[in-house]
Design goal:
Blueprint lengths: L1 E7 L3 H11 L6 H9 L2 H9 L14 E6 L2 H10 L4 E6 L2 E6 L1 H7 L5 H9 L7 H7 L3
Antiparallel strand pairs: 1-2, 2-4, 3-4
Helix pairs in contact: 1-2, 1-3
């Protein structure tokens, strides 16, 4: 199996932090996002306070991968979660997309794909490993 991240929401952590703050602030969401985009330290601070039970905050993004895997792996994934999208490209090649909430939920299952997903997005969202460890259902 091979997994290659090919596209993602820019500044995903800033987007999630902005979504968190808009639920408690009267400031325009675009203003919050612009401020946070230029302050990665503040973004990390806000993300570290995220209560993962409120997973909808993690839906404010999209990630797209090229997945090279057998049909059985895709079917297994589809049976475990309804929040991944797959398009068959042929010859065991798939276009796959999801958001961070779906990735965290899926990473709770045993299996190679969950680990590959978390590893593939570590540069997009460095906090993902900490969030995966804190998730409570």
């Amino acid at each position: 199996m091979r997994l290659t991240l090919i596209a993602h929401t820019p500044k995903a952590e800033a987007m999630i932090a902005a979504a968190m703050l808009t639920t408690t602030s009267g400031v325009e969401p675009s203003t919050i996002y612009e401020k946070l985009s230029s302050d990665p330290r503040k973004v990390r601070d806000i993300i570290s306070r995220l209560e993962v039970q409120h997973g909808s905050i993690l839906e404010h993004n999209r990630l797209v991968w090229l997945l090279e895997a057998e049909d059985e792996i895709v079917l297994d994934t589809l049976l475990k979660t309804k929040f991944f999208n797959f398009t068959k490209l042929g010859n065991d090649r798939w276009l796959m997309s999801a958001n961070l909430r779906a990735i965290l939920e899926y990473s709770e299952y045993e299996g190679e794909l969950g680990d590959f997903l978390l590893d593939s997005i570590i540069n997009v969202m460095p906090s993902i490993r900490r969030l995966a460890g804190r998730r409570q259902t």
